[in-house]
Design a protein that fits this description.
The protein is an alpha/beta fold. About 30% of the residues lie in helices and about 20% in strands. It is built from 21 helices and 31 strands. Bound molecules: 5'-O-[(S)-butoxy(hydroxy)phosphoryl]adenosine.
């Protein structure tokens, strides 16, 4: 039994419907992508076909070459072109729609703020000028540690304007995680805030940032602090700390000449969990990334300037970068930004916001949909959601049941759903149906997008038969792909690429099957990464935090069917496994990894199942957590623990 293999993966998980559902006629007639010829066009034109995407952008210096693949796997998209991402997301919309809303923000306390494209232009320029004054130069990495406030996209765009790559760290991550990311990204500028509301309470973010500063090896040249809480929390600023509001006020009305960047220059870095305990710094280049994101925002999410579009993901992760900020703003639409939680003040908050704003395209995760289902259809049913014309999901597999619920109760039984597969590394959507063209199959993500050479292969790189589990790989480069890792070329190559006879192949780390029609079903990760609450965690990262708790000897972490984190924990013989220990584990996870890293279920067990070489059998634990059948355990060093663990799970 090999923990990392796909062979033992259940083939029927998730159970997908084989009946294809045609795009509704009304939708098809008006869809951005309505010509099925696009699949053939990409297939015959090769990389050149991606001109369609690049031509959605404004170029400071037009590109002539589409792809430089002379030194694989170091690919360069649109290598001789120059552009600025902020110009593409803001300035170029001023002629046609300066008074159109760009961002409509809803705060936790019911506050609202709206930014037209003109407002956005003004604030981005003022902040860009302010950052310059603080010494930020082209190629300096600026770390952003902010919750879902408008200042976050403003800061991203201000950085982009002056050619300073941003490094957004999810606000819920710990001081330790921020310190690691500041150092790893070699970043000496930080933008954070005083704090933010969690439910009723004002939470001090600045003290977390201060803590990170103490823990980090490097020094910060300047910190900018957004005042989110006003009188609710007073933070004092040190000598090299600056209030965001004063900085922006001081430069209000100034314009900063946008820095033309090579298409291959770094737009941002985003840290994500990899196969080791240390996060990987995924680097995205300016031109290819923005082109791919803009093209998919239009062709997959079918977004037009006239839409009000809402991607519910936090900007602290890649989905929020690509489809909460760069995608919608590059195509000139109105994007909704929501700071709060979906069940506060009531469980209809999301539906209330959709109704209030006449949201036409809504993009969220299966985790969220599962919660909505649990809360009940009466909440969406209470609202007029007739503005919705397209729904999207991302982050994990959606069951056909959840798919149908989403369509019936949110999409009025009519709206097409795009199940979009991609990763931090792919930058943008890689597999999905084109909603006006491709039939949908609930539970299957769909075929690869035109131009994406995705294949499900076996250990030897040979395509598997329909229905057989294999590894999802991508056989040739695509524009949104990472340009490298912060950790260097060698790590990038080793982490993602295999050289095969027919060229280099990118390994996604996902197991998958493909059906006769070429529709891919994702089975889950084949490495030590788990997806929970639509986020990615490295199991070792969580386990080492748990083992850091006094009295804990070993821990193994898996995901269950509800997308929850289940931690199996063994303790020292003199330690009583009980409530205080559970609390201590929860606190340590929050401190070391972050808020999202809670263990939903903690199962105390006398031992963990191990192979003869001492490797913990995580897949077996996953099966037990999911209440599923599991195979032969005789290869274990300690098969007798399995029964004990099962009863521990049952008596939880
Ligand atoms: C992993 C990437 C960019 C998406 C947000 C998470 C899983 C993503 C799907 C989907 C089944 C999916 C994969 C992938 N995943 N989309 N539609 N169906 N699984 O980004 O943190 O980089 O995680 O999320 O396992 O490898 P991420």
């Amino acid at each position: 039994m090999d923990d990392a293999g796909v062979d033992g993966r259940r083939r029927d998980r998730p159970v997908a419907d084989d009946d294809a559902i045609e795009p509704p006629t009304g939708f098809r007639e008006r869809a951005v992508a309505s010509d099925a010829g696009v699949y053939d066009a990409f297939a015959t034109e090769g990389p050149d076909a991606w001109r369609r995407a690049a031509d959605l952008l404004d170029w400071e210096r037009p590109y002539e070459r589409v792809l430089d693949d002379g030194d694989p796997p170091f690919y360069e998209w649109f290598p001789d072109g120059r552009l600025n991402a902020a110009v593409n997301c803001v300035d170029r919309h001023l002629d046609e729609r300066r008074n159109q809303l760009a961002i409509r923000w809803f705060g936790k306390r019911g506050e609202r703020r709206s930014y037209t494209y003109l407002d956005l232009h003004r604030e981005v320029n003022a902040l860009a000028a302010g950052l310059r004054e603080l010494g930020v130069e082209e190629d300096d990495v600026v770390t952003l540690y902010l919750p879902m406030v408008p200042e976050l996209p403003v800061a991203m765009l201000a950085c982009a304007r002056i050619g300073a790559p941003h490094n957004v760290v999810f606000a819920g991550l710990s001081a330790e995680a921020l310190a690691t990311r500041l150092d790893a990204a070699d970043s000496s500028y930080l933008i954070t805030c005083d704090g933010y509301y969690r439910r009723e309470d004002a939470f001090n973010q600045k003290s977390k940032a201060d803590n990170a500063r103490l823990r980090a090896d490097g020094d910060l040249a300047a910190t900018v602090v957004v005042d989110r809480l006003g009188d609710a929390l007073d933070v004092s600023l040190g000598a090299d700390e600056h209030a965001y509001e004063s900085l922006v006020d001081a430069h209000d009305g100034e314009t900063v000449e946008p820095v033309a960047r090579d298409a291959t220059d770094l737009l941002f870095v985003m840290y994500t969990s990899g196969t080791t305990g240390r996060p990987k710094g995924v680097e995205h280049a300016t031109g290819g990334y923005l082109a791919h994101v803009a093209w998919t925002t239009r062709n997959v999410l079918d977004v037009r300037p006239s839409d009000t579009y809402w991607c519910a993901a936090d900007i602290g992760w890649i989905t929020g970068h690509s489809y909460g900020v760069y995608g919608p703003l590059s195509v000139g639409t109105t994007t909704v930004l929501y700071e709060g939680s979906p069940d506060y003040p009531d469980r209809d908050r999301v539906w209330d916001l959709i109704e209030r704003n006449a949201v036409s395209v809504f993009y969220t995760s299966p985790t969220a949909i599962r919660s909505f289902m649990k809360w009940g259809a009466e909440y969406p049913d209470r609202h007029d959601l007739s503005s919705i014309r397209l729904l999207g999901t991302v982050g994990e597999s959606i069951t056909p049941k959840a798919w149908r619920w989403y369509r019936d109760h949110v999409g009025g039984g009519e709206a097409p759903i795009v199940d979009t597969w991609w990763q931090t590394e792919t930058g943008a959507i890689a597999l999905a149906t084109l909603p006006g063209i491709t039939p949908m199959k609930p539970g299957r993500v769909g075929p690869p997008l035109p131009g994406i050479d995705a294949r499900v292969v076996d250990e030897d790189g040979e395509p598997v038969d329909p229905g057989e589990p294999g590894y999802l790989t991508i056989g040739s480069p695509w524009p949104g792909m990472l340009r490298g890792l912060r950790e260097g070329d060698e790590r990038y190559r080793r982490e993602y690429w295999v050289e095969a006879e027919d060229g280099w192949r990118y390994r996604t780390g996902d197991g998958a099957t493909v059906d006769e029609d070429g529709y891919v079903t994702i089975l889950g990760r084949v490495d030590d990464v788990i997806n929970v609450r639509a986020q990615r965690f490295n199991t070792a990262e969580l386990e080492s935090a748990i083992v850091g708790v006094e009295g804990v000897t070993e821990a193994a972490v898996v995901g269950d069917d509800d997308g929850d984190v289940v931690a199996y924990v063994t303790t020292r013989s003199d330690v009583e496994p009980g409530e205080p220990l559970r609390t201590a584990i929860g606190e340590e996870l929050a401190r070391e990894v972050g808020d999202l890293a809670r263990a939903d279920r903690i199962v105390f067990t006398p031992d963990l199942p191990k192979t003869r070489s001492g490797k913990i059998m995580r897949r077996l634990l996953e099966d037990i957590a999911r209440g599923e059948e599991f195979g032969d355990v005789s290869a274990l060093r300690n098969p007798e623990v399995v029964g004990e663990i099962e009863s521990a799970v049952r008596s939880e």
